[in-house]
Amino acid sequence: MCKITATILKSGGLPVAWTCNSKEPLTSAQCEKKFSRAKEAGKTAEEYVSVTDFQCIAIESERKPKRGKNVQ
Q: Known Pfam families for this protein (predicted)?
């Protein structure tokens, strides 16, 4: 399990702090690609997103105790 944090910068917008828990690690480039939009019909330009303060930290997942009749 990985905890991913970054600051997302979009042109014409304010910076946004973003946090996500993921089963697989991401790179900064993969994160930028995830939030950028390709050019669509009827639109004039693509939307590019840049990412700063990117961190991908491996964390240990905590297992919840099972519920049921045979739990000790």
A: DUF1187
